[in-house]
Amino acid sequence: MLNVETINLFYGASHCLRGVSLTAEKGRVTCLLGRNGVGKTSTLRAIMGLQSVKSGRILWEDGDITGLAPHQRARKGIAFVPQGREIFARLTVKENLETGFAPLKRGDRFIQDEIFELFPVLKDMQHRRGGDLSGGQQQQLAIARALVTRPRLLILDEPTEGIQPSIIRDIGRVIRLLADRGDMAILLVEQYFDFARELADDFAVLERGEVVLAGRAAEMVEEDVRRYLTV
Fold it and tell me: How many Å apart are CA 44 and CA 72, to the nearest integer?
């Protein structure tokens, strides 16, 4: 389980995260919701070690990872799919996937058959450059690259942004399948509430850097959640 305990994060003098706490359990999808600029991506960057927290703790599998560098967290089984995908446009699909080998032991440095079972389109495009793929295909590649690392915690930052509906459905199917296996925790940042509602087992809603709603999806009142998402 991931436990984020009352973390505070600053950008200069700006207090961006104010005592944020949340959890993500293996076998469940935790969805972090909120308007633009409320601290969702900052929370993910703090969990991944890309931004240092001022106070609070981040625990993963009963170990304190607050002070670890991003590559050390990756070796502990944490994978991050950033907003905007950030694939390598000049590398082929296969080469992009192989960049996921970095945190793995030498004997594990191969692309699992499951990757192409989850994303069949990538199998036929292995020798195409990443920059030649559509936005939806690039998003599938970004998720596949994260899965190559064999994560036990998968963090996704707005995977549906700018993606056509058919691929959104494919991505949702993959996320649900991965969670249902029971060996992976999934933390998903999303603004598209209908997508989140279909997938999430647990919710946390941010407003001005604070968690204002949190709990099991079955216990959440949709109108209360939507109130913090509308502009």
Answer: 16
